[in-house]
Request: fold
Amino acid sequence: MDNFTFHNPTRLHFGRGQIEQISSEIPTDAKVLLLAGGGSVKSNGVYDQVKAALSERTVIEHWGVEANPDFDTLMPAVRICREKKIDWVLAVGGGSVLDGAKFVCAAAPYAGDPWSLVEDFGSSITSALPLGTVLTLPATGSEANSASVISRRAMSLKLPFMSPHVFPQFSILDPETTFSLPPRQVANGIGDAFCHVVEQYLTFPTHAAVQDEFAESIFRVLIKVGPKTLADPTDYDARANLVWAATCALQGLVGCGVPHDWSSHMIGHELTALHGIDHARTLAIVLPNLLEAQRATKREKLLQYAERVWGINAGCEDERISQGIEKTREFYETIGIPTRLKDYEVTADVAPIVAARLAGRGMGAIGEHADLTPDRIEAILRAAA
Reply:
């Protein structure tokens, strides 16, 4: 196991009725920017609960944050923070709203070009407004981490950034706020969380027993409760376990002291930027073919994954690896996420374009061994056609 420092400053309030905790988290004299998406939180009762909890504060609202939050959508919120001297930002929504709020919090006090905060992957961030979140879609883990992904559609870009300054100070996770989500969004959340664990686990052994078994337990929970919560959205226990699994998948503990990959995400971001495919669905397109391409360097962990997660013990090693990869593809298909480019009306012609775009941004050798070169990235996408 490698050396690591772990610190997660986000206070999590989990369970029914926890939105009221906002009143004890944000000072009564604070001026708050409420950042939200398309308005579904008004129809499911979340908005009313949030406003009640904020009743003594000055609240300014900014709506319209879309999936894959866009720079041009967020900049008016940045200007509001500056002009109105906002003290706190409260994000109410799914991972995209939370990611957008992190950008707003970092950009508001920044004197330079806000886009540079994304271009340098967050290295220029030295301060940020305090952030609270109310999660309504389990998927990204953004409610308990320091990461964000921002799109700039005018430039066909989608880029991640990280900074310890944008950890939420608190997050509310009430599973009941997710009951009204469309099945597609729930499936996307399941698929996204699953791949988050893959990126931190399916690399090579480092004798990190706690991290491995924690990761494997999250896999098994997602495999079990994913289909169950899709079939019965108001089963509180199933949905609660999904919400918590998605948070645990990317709040830091799984990835402590172990190598990370993240190449499925880097490739997937390009497919979203070019074709608007849902983030989780780009991961489903890339992941099975990437695992096949990397079966030699990931061999030991693929065997461990096949046995411990999928219960595959019979057959030679190569057969067990193949079965584990196929089970991964089947899992995505089972929860309603197609795994081929053709399912999204995209051809293999996209393969060299994605490879060239990554190389042009200095990502011409990605993965835990930095061995996924443009030629190999292109081959992975051609295999996904």
The first helix runs from residue 22 to 25. The chain has a mean pLDDT of 97. The chain is about 45% helix and 10% strand. Residues 182-383 form a domain with the Dehydroquinate synthase-like, alpha domain fold (CATH 1.20.1090.10).
